[in-house]
Amino acid sequence: MIPKIAKIGLQTMVLGLVMMGFCACAKKSYIDVDYRLPSAVDTLAGRTVLVETRDLRSDPEIFNQRAKEKFEHFTGLFSLALEQPDKRQSVVGAYELPLLFETALKRRLQKLGVVVAAERSANVPVFQIKINQFRINLLGQKWLADIGYEASLTQDTRLVARETVSGSAERLKVMGSGGAEKVISDIFTEMINRLNIERLFQQAKL
Question: 135 with 146: CB under 8 angstroms?
Fold first, then answer.
């Protein structure tokens, strides 16, 4: 029979191990990204495109060393939440970087009235996204995020319109990773919404 004091000690130790295991499992393996859609709707109704994404970053590393230490359990997935102009929010899914861009831009196209084709077709233009920069640095007491990409429209394999978007943002470091996720969400929203999709279609005469 286990003495009462030893039994209590054993229970405490087991509980401690369970709590340690729970905390270890609770380490975030993903980054939350909140994308806020602009208010414009149906300005491009009647158009159809196929969306493709290419990751052309010269350096696939997302973090500098200090930032990497804060996201040591990161698996490469971004949890995308969509915020409508009326503040309604919904979680869309978890994606690797190329699909993060593709999903957000598809939602923006659809809000403008564009139909997103499921597969390539002879008469459907290709809306292509080329990711050139996605970097999160922790420098001193600041989180810094840099994002850059190119969007283009191709008709019958011929480039007909193109626009490059890039920018950066910073935010003071706070406890945990929330400050980094906030600055990533802010700059991601700004960069996706900065793309003038209507002008791109006008240039392409589509």
Answer: yes
Answer yes or no: is 21 within a domain: no
CB 162 within 8 A of CB 150: yes
**Residue 15 in tokens:** 């509980």
- Of the candidates 142, 143, 194, the one whose C-alpha atom is nearest the C-alpha of residue 167 is 194
- Which residues in the chain belong to E strands, given as ranges? 30-36, 48-55, 77-83, 89-95, 115-116, 126-139, 142-155, 158-172
Reported confidence tier of residue 40, pLDDT bands at 50, 70, 90: confident
**Which CATH number fits the domain that encloses residue 187?**
3.40.50.10610
Domain assignment present for residue 5? The answer is no
pLDDT in tens, 60-85: 999 999 999 989 999 999 999 999 98
Q: 103-139: per-residue pLDDT in tens?
A: 999 999 999 999 999 999 888 999 999 999 999 999 9
3-state secondary structure 51-81: EEEEECCCCCCCECHHHHHHCCCCCCEEEEE
- Residues 75 and 85: their CA atoms lie apart, in Å, by 31
